[in-house]
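Box S1 | Example of a co-folding query
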Amino acid sequence: MVTITIQELTKRFSGSVVLSSVNLQVESGELFFLLGPSGCGKTTLLRHIAGFYRPDEGKIWFDDEDVTRLPAHKRGTGMMFQSYALWPHLNVAQNVAFGLEERKRPRKEIEHRVAEALDQVKLGGLGSRKIQQLSGGQQQRVALARALVIRPKCLLLDEPLSNLDAKLRLEMRGEIRGICKQHGLTGIYVTHDRDEALSMADRMAIMESGRLAQVGTPAEVYRNPATRMVAEFIGETNFVEGRALRESSREGFFDVETSFGFLRGRTDGTWQPAAGQPVVLSIRPESLTFSNLTDTSNRFPGHIVDTTYLGATVQYVLQVQNGPLMKVCEINPQEIRMPAADEIRAMAALNDVVILRK
Ligand code: ATP
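Box S1 (continued) | Returned holo structure for adenosine-5'-triphosphate
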């Protein structure tokens, strides 16, 4: 277990800034995700933690040790990549043993620890198999065993599941998390798959252009996105442009004027919109419901222009009257509404309308 602290980390490649004054603390034993669009700097940040890159500015601490200039093999980190990077001419056990042989451990100890690591990833007894005789999922487990065998203080994972099919990916999510928790490992996991991050992370950072746009638990980031980019990246949402009016009669909620009337919502709690300030509202499809209620706020008319039935859910596209197209997702649908010109009313709870700076 180790606490990893990143202080004012900046990295430039050929003059262009790839990481810009990044500050982050990953707690001991935490499974932390770096999430963001392609090219935002996730892998570069992970490689600094691993020791493959030196920053131009800033420091990295493992507990109270400054490791900024410490070579990779002295950091006690286990690393797992998207391409498993296994040696095809070595068998499973030899692949797993590599890190221990590099460290010149005695033969008996190597045999014991390799067997232990293979058991951990459910490959016990397969040590003498050739790499080509394994499925993609099994190869991925070998890569995990190879990272674990050195008993790392932290596990660094760079898109480890992206070469696997959907079913295996789901299975491995639980296993990787289980192994990290069971061994008390601090884990840092890079992905651009939001479901992977939401389902596995203790906390996550959403990165944008070399900066951390937001850090929080999955629920914090999903429910309280700090920016438009974060709101969109972490899940489907509808954006509605508007202008803040004033604080509403309910404390903490604000009225926003839109092209189709007033909507009442909240911010993430860290700021308040000024009267007249242009804002954007984020309203997730599953928070919209069709409603016959009268006398409620955040209720507006439209008509359905598209219907997609998916069993557990049904997804609609609603043309809001005098407003935008909005996605509506009904869970456990009792009735399927087909596209029609008839007016229908949709509504969102005040808590589900998040006001973002424009
Ligand atoms: P992806 O999800 O596509 O893997 P990422 O968020 O991991 O993306 P990085 O691989 O960290 O992004 O790259 C960030 C930026 O730095 C990109 O613009 C990339 O082209 C650039 N970059 C990465 N490594 C190098 C390098 N060794 N030399 C020059 N530029 C690099």
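The longest strand covers residues 16-26. Residues 13-14, 18, 36, 38-44, 192 surround adenosine-5'-triphosphate (CB under 6 Å).
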